[in-house]
Task: structure prediction
Amino acid sequence: MVSRVRVWLNRTYAENVFFMDQLRRNPSDRAVEIHATHGDADSPVLAAADTAELEPEGLSPAGYVEYALAQCRRRGIDVFVPRLHQAAIVAHRAEFEAAGTALLAPPPEAVAVFQDKVIAYEAVQAVGVPVPPWFRVRDADELLAAVEELEAGGHRACFKPASGAGGVGFRMITRSPFSLTHLSGFPTPYVQLDLVLDALRRTDEPVDWLVMPRLEQPEVSVDCLTGPDSRVRLAIGRVKNGRRRGFTLQEQWLEPARLVAEGFGLHHLSNIQFRMFGGTPVLMDVNTRPAGGLHQLSLCGVNAPWLAVRLALGEDPGVVTPPFLGQDYTVVAGPRPLRPVSIPQQRTESEAPLLPAVPAPAQPGPVGTGAVLPL
Result:
């Protein structure tokens, strides 16, 4: 009898409820038990897990590693998918392996490169991957100089933190003066240059921003599955063009993604994002973790989370080609069940086994954040 697999996701995005659903609906019909931890007691990820706990607050990265090792030992974790404190965790891979836990994450050298976008851009340029023009700024004078140079070239300037994930901190620069027109309709990512310069000159807090031209659509996020031999097993591009989404296997997107994934050893799951600059695809960002939209590859007949877990367990799936590319779709929000109380309920030793004889069923009813509908 094939043993069950125990997977842990630490403080992760709400969309990863679908990651968890796909693990349970794996094509191997293998029993999967999921443990989740989070800082928010009402995270849907906690509700979707078989067992769940609130994470302690205020831990240093080193303290969090000790907490994580204790979780793996106590919970018998086979595969750990770390998001929070990923860099600190992967630096202790040998200790997790000694505890019987495989890390579904790249090695520390790869994670370090892509923690800082400036270091990342310099590194990928060296292997032949195009990047947009960029400027690192830390004060008002540097910001103004960068914006003026970009505008002189006919570009609209934008900025984002040199380190960070997702769209947090992304803003587009405008020289239009602040007026009532900016208070009508919905908030936008546009900010007035004079207000930003004034804020920088008045603050004692350090900033570390990457200033670059506003890149054009489409945005293509290439989800890669890479083995410990640094060879890509799976690469599929998810195309975003306004509300419309789709998939691509065009080499103009996949070839540079493979260069990054293989050249820097982005083992297991990574997400490499591109946009257009002057008619050329250029690198926008690299995530050394599973993307929140990874589950959308199910529209192509691919269960990427399960392939990644198999790879982490040493069961190499080989090169995977999607059997088809799904039709264009859009993403909508919907309800997702939460636990009946805010503090996660835990099973006790006297109750039924943590996992039934068959994989737990998917959540019934409407799916939640990130559900996809065909167009």
Summary: The chain is about 25% helix and 25% strand.
